Amino acid sequence: MLRKSTRLVILILLSVLCNGRGSVQTTRLDPPFSMGAFQETDDDPFSIFSIDFNLDGISDFRFSYGAGGPGVACYFNYPNQIAILRAAPAFPDQTNVYGTMGALPLGTIIGSNLVSTIDLSDYTWHFGTTNHYDLTLAFGDHQTSVFGVIDPVTIGVPSLAAGDPVAKEGVMGFRFLIGTNVHFGYVHFDFRTNINRWYMGAGGYILGWAYETEADKPIVAAPISVSPTPFSMDVRAQENGAFDLTWKATPGAIFQIEGTPSLSQPFTTFTPAFLSRPNFHANQVIEDVTIFGMANYPIYFWRVKRAGVSN
Q1: Residue 148, number of CB atoms within 10 A of its CB
Q2: In whole angstroms, what is the distance from residue 311 CA to residue 309 CA?
């Protein structure tokens, strides 16, 4: 149950980037905003995080989060829409479309159609469901679930986090009106499980958002910022002077490998920047790189670095 004392979170905006007519306007958060299930703020377990794409003082979409869910939901007004992961029909002859917030991979072209190098046929635009709850109507007349957590106290089994964005880094797609014109935008999030604070990836960071200022023009979902969540790398030294490096990568992100013979020395770049390959439903992919010619260095320190952030 949502309290009437729900607090509006004030955002810190680092940059708004706009380059002339028909351009992408980007809002980057510094620091990234932390949001998730079971999150309490002061004495109120419920909070609202607002997205104002064109910075006109009017919230286009609102996320509710906190212990009262537990989970995260998105509120908005008709006829705005969100990109959802369609649920399988309950009956073979069911024609209605249902679903919850989708996690799209970085690099997705967000427009009237959702286009990627992988199959996105399970994703579509949707109006959400009608919001009938009096205490939340001020947030929007429609809503959708982003993710939720089943409480073990209630059901007597280990917690279960459900929702397409859980444990992923990617973007959420939005279709909204400015006046009477349709615009497309996205929110860059990182809910990977490397953040120990959030159980099973049911929370993490909102890094920022962007939208296309030209009406009806698609936008490419470029990374907004580098997440503070690290990538954990597995390093195996081979007898022939090679190192095998493996990590769980974000599809559509750009990486470089750096190394140093001693932590007292600076890291140097060993590989050119390369794009991580796509994966189904924006799931993380296992990337592996082998560095050769290291016979004189039986011990070496390695790290994977993100590159290619939108600016």
Answers
A1: 19
A2: 6
